[in-house]
What does this fold into?
Amino acid sequence: MYRFLSEEWIKAYAEEWNRNEKLRSDLKSFSASIKYFVEGKENEAVGLVVEKGEVVSFGKADPNKKYDFELWASPENWRKLASGEMGPRAAMLTKRLKFKGSMITAMKYMGAFEESLRMMGRIPTSWD
It folds into this structure.
């Protein structure tokens, strides 16, 4: 069991991402850095770097780095996204999932983006 968005959690998430053949295939022409955090706790953010669909590095987010994408939500909304109780598209449209980055790129890869968020539910997570 990993504390949500801890360094151990992002490692498990990166491993799950790289095992997901469909996600990697759908993102084979996508490279970006992505930062995740709980609303109000940006100093505890974690991130990963994706190159051609595969996670090549992950860990605690660098506060001095500009990330291509940033995603943040309340702990409750992250839990709802991971459990599938709330869909990623609806979460973004209702601003329950906040997003910073190229909306054009996000829309181009929406299916893979949704899969990457649903995948969070596959990580044994402690939400406390």
